[in-house]
Amino acid sequence: MLETMELVGSELWTLPPDDRNDAIYKQHREQSLEEALSDSTESFSRLVSAIETLEDIDLSDPKR
């Protein structure tokens, strides 16, 4: 959402939390610890970069 500035995303959000968690687990259960840590680090870096581009108005105006 931060990168596209649109309220769109995964279809997983339409699932109840337990079903969503189960689907995510099944998608990643074969992933090694190293891959999971690498993905986590990359995702965090992208999140921080996206947050840094926000302006105050982005946080207070729901239409932005």
Q: Would you mind describing this structure in some detail?
A:
By secondary structure, the protein is mainly alpha-helical. The chain is built from 3 helices and no strands. The protein has helices at residues 17-28, 33-52, 56-60.
Break the fold down into its secondary structure elements and pairings.
Elements: H1 17-28, H2 33-52, H3 56-60
- Specify the structural class: mainly alpha
| Unreliable sequence segments | none
- SSE topology string: HHH
The shape, in one word, is: flat
Approximate helicity band: 55-70%
Taking the sheet with the most strands, its summary is: none
Short summary of the structure?
This protein is mainly alpha-helical. 58% of the residues lie in helices and 0% in strands.
Record keyword descriptors for this entry:
flat; 3 helices; 64 residues; single chain; mainly alpha
